[in-house]
Each structure stands twice: as C-alpha cells, then as structure tokens.
Amino acid sequence: TLWLPVGPFNGSSIVDPEMRPVEQHLIPASAAERSLQILREFGADIWLFTTDKWLIDNPGGSYVAHEQHTIRADPTIVSDFSPYLSSACKIVGASADAAGLAACEKAMQEALGSEATAVRSQTYYLDVTPPGFDKGTFVEAMAKRLGIATAAVATIGDMQNDLAMFRVSGTSIAMGNAADNVKDQATHVTASNEQDGFAEAMEMILKRNGVG
User: Fold this and answer.
1) Which single residue of 60, 65, 75, 212 has CA 20 to 30 Å from 150?
2) Strand ranges, E, within the chain
C-alpha cells in the first residue's frame, strides 16, 4: 500500500496517495504557448495535462491507446488548447520519430531556457514541465519530509528525465535498456525491463540495506 506522497508530472507536483494535491506547479502560459508552437513545427502530437484532465486534439495519435492503458484514464478531446494554457501541469509531444523528437528536445530547451523544463521521458515522449522542478527536486523534497539525507536515497531510471534524480541520490540504478548517457551517470546498471532488471535493482537496494 502506498503511504508516501508521489510526484506526478516528472516530480513537478506532489500528491498524496489518494491523488490529492500537496504541492502544485504550473507551466507559465507564455512558455506553454511557445512549446505548442515548437511541437507543431516538429510534427509531434500534443497532449496537455491539467491537474485532473488529459487533453488531446488528435484521438488517432500513435500513442493515445498506450497512454490510456498506462494511466488508466481516457483523454478529453479538444479542438483548441488555448483555454487551458494557463492551467498546464505538463505538456507532452508524442512522436514515433525518435531522432526528430531528440532534435525537438534540443530546440525546446534553447527556446524556453529557464521558463520551463523540457526533457524526454521516453524515446517517443517529450515532456514540458514547470521551471525549477524535476525528479531531483522531488527526491530532495521527499528526503526532507522523511528526515533522511539524499545520500540514503536509491533511485531507478532509464531515461533523460531520470538524470535529475540520479544527480541528487546516493545510489542510482540505470536499467539495462537505458541510453548510454543515462548508464554513465548512474552508480549501478541492472538488466533490462524484459530481463527482470527492476527485481534485480530492488534486490541490490535490499542487500545494501542489510535485508535479504
């Protein structure tokens, strides 16, 4: 059973186990508008997440069914994102063109600067989230809440958006399916998702803590 808060939207929000907001941050409306323009330039599907809605304008997009299964929620179809630009917790560009999305990530980071965080959470998802908050700041917030040092925290990840939490945690474990630059910044590398890498990572953490 979950008893600790969780950090949706790449750690830029904190919610309790019942999904009630503890801390919420939004993307500045101007940055949200600019990010939509850039995603359109690169031909990515646009998804906008508010605190309680997943908004899309292309129900036939390649990853809509995948996301429905992942988050166990249905999207709200809109023809115009404008009314929601001032209440965006996260904006996602979804694209099957991995190289194009990597280029889009770079363009987005250059265009937005410190106005928002733009980083890929999958090879096919580019996430734009509120500035100054990421998985690393979430780790720090949770460590403070628990009264422990970040050096005592272990994190597991496989994508660019996990690097922020790797940088602040004492033990960082990259999945075997992670990109090389993610593996390079981890203290340990485990097997891939398909080869029970998560179970292997948990065993590593338990052994480190003298359990099992």
Assistant:
1) 212
2) 14-15, 21-23, 45-49, 54-56, 76-77, 90-94, 117-122, 125-129, 154-157, 171-174, 188-189
Q: Which CATH class is domain 135-206?
A: alpha beta
* CA end-to-end span of the chain: 20
182, two tokens: 């993610």
Rg over CA atoms, the chain: 17
Measure the CA–CA gap between 47 and 92, rounded to whole angstroms.
5
Contact 23, 14 (CB under 8 A): yes
CA distance 105 to 82: 22
What is this structure's pTM?
A: 0.86
What are the backbone dihedrals phi and psi of residue 31, each rounded to the nearest 5 degrees, phi first? -70, -35
pLDDT top residue among 125 and 8: 125
| 8-129 is a CATH 3.90.1600.10 domain | no
CA–CA distance, 17 with 202 (Å, rounded to integer): 21
